[in-house]
């Protein structure tokens, strides 16, 4: 460490923190609107300043060293707190803004179509919506409210149950014209659509039904529920889709149920916040609005 300089540059610290979060210079570059080589250069500058190796680098992977893990945990919390304090300062002295984090499919299918109603009620409040995969099940440090999917086991958060997440086997109506819905074996040889974040969904569905997993003729894999639903609606195969989030696809007859039964997962969507956060009137109003509007999705 250079004894004449007490702190490394903020740019290099931020580059390291984002690279440590993703364990990828490329993904960090995408978030920071830089090139991967620029992020790597900033991290190398930080390592040179500290005289420590923060990452173990290989051709296809990036791994934090023990020193890197310790420094990352500190910086990750520091940047989250910095962002929180900055937004709270802006919210208190500037235009009101609520930061809301939701799963992507929840956002596109049920939240965004209704959000204009809240904007009409609270026109002076801005809402920043960010997304994170439902499997993460974490309330980000930098948000005011979040929608989480799970069993309600978040002891450090205040949570409100919204509705149960169920699953339905669906396909485009044209695929169901000659489909025998009386037996699960009709799925054998069909194209099955798989959500990469839930690779065991078909096996779990079969276990719930007490039958053998279907033997796919072909498998199509997608990394989002939105893509899964759209692929099924285009007639590319059979998919297990989230209900009631996908309800509008069935109402429009773009999708139809292959079987009558719906699979109860035991998971519920919850609205969550930290215990000391909802002191602002606009946040309380959004909580009340969400609880009221999403009862109809139960």
- Under CATH, the homologous superfamily of the largest domain reads Periplasmic binding protein-like II
Please tell me what the overall shape is: globular
| Biggest sheet overview | 9 strands, mixed
Low-confidence stretches: none
Relative strand content: 15-25%
Q: How far do the termini sit from each other?
A: 58 Å
Mean pLDDT value? 89
Structural class: alpha/beta
Multimerization status:
single chain
Number of strands: 11
CATH second-level architecture of the largest domain = 3-Layer(aba) Sandwich
**Order of secondary-structure elements:** HHHEEHEHEEEEHEHEHEEH
Give the CATH level 1 class of the largest domain. Answer: Alpha Beta
Helix residue percentage: 25-40%
Q: Helix tally?
A: 9
Topology-level CATH name of the largest domain: D-Maltodextrin-Binding Protein, domain 2
For the record, the count of structural domains works out to 3
Cα gyration radius (Å): 23 Å
Description:
This protein has 298 residues and is an alpha/beta fold. The chain folds into three domains: 10-80, Winged helix-like DNA-binding domain superfamily/Winged helix DNA-binding domain (Arc Repressor Mutant, subunit A); 87-162 and 268-297, D-Maltodextrin-Binding Protein, domain 2 (3-Layer(aba) Sandwich), CATH 3.40.190.10; 165-266, D-Maltodextrin-Binding Protein, domain 2 (3-Layer(aba) Sandwich). 40% of the residues lie in helices and 23% in strands. It contains nine helices and eleven strands. The chain has helices at residues 10-22, 25-32, 36-50, 66-93, 104-121, 201-209, 225-233, 247-251, 281-293; strands at residues 55-57, 62-64, 96-102, 125-131, 145-150, 158-171, 191-195, 218-222, 238-243, 256-257, 263-273. The strands form two sheets. Strands 3, 4, 5, 6, 7, 8, 9, 10 and 11 form a nine-stranded mixed β-sheet that branches. Strands 1-2 form a two-stranded antiparallel sheet. α1 (10-22) crosses α4 (66-93). It is globular. The N and C termini lie far apart (58 Å).
């Amino acid at each position: 460490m250079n004894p004449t300089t007490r702190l490394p540059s903020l740019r290099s610290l931020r580059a390291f923190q984002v690279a440590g979060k993703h364990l990828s210079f490329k993904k960090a570059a995408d978030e920071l609107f830089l090139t991967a080589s620029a992020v790597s250069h900033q991290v190398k500058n930080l390592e040179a300043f500290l005289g420590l190796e923060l990452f173990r680098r290989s051709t296809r992977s990036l791994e934090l060293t023990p020193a890197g893990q310790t420094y990352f945990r500190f910086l990750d919390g520091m940047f989250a707190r910095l962002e929180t304090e900055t937004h709270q300062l802006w919210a208190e002295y500037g235009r009101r803004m609520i930061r809301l984090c939701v799963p992507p499919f929840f956002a596109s299918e049920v939240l965004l179509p209704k959000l204009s109603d809240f904007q009409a009620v609270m026109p002076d409040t801005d809402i920043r919506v960010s997304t994170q995969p439902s499997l993460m099940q974490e309330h980000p440090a930098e948000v005011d409210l979040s929608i989480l999917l799970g069993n309600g086991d978040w002891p450090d958060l205040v949570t409100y149950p919204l509705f149960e997440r169920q699953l339905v086997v669906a396909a485009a109506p044209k695929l169901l014209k000659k489909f025998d819905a009386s037996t699960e074996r009709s799925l054998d040889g069909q194209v099955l659509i798989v959500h990469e974040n839930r690779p065991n969904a078909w096996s779990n569905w079969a276990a719930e039904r007490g039958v053998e997993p279907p033997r796919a003729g072909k498998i199509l894999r997608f990394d989002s529920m939105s893509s899964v639903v759209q692929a099924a609606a285009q007639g590319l195969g059979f998919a297990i889709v989230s209900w009631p989030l996908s309800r509008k696809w069935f109402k429009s007859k773009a999708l139809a149920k292959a079987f009558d039964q719906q699979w109860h997962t035991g998971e519920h969507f919850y609205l969550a916040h930290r215990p000391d956060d909802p002191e602002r009137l606009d946040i309380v109003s959004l909580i009340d609005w969400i609880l009221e509007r999403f009862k109809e999705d139960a």
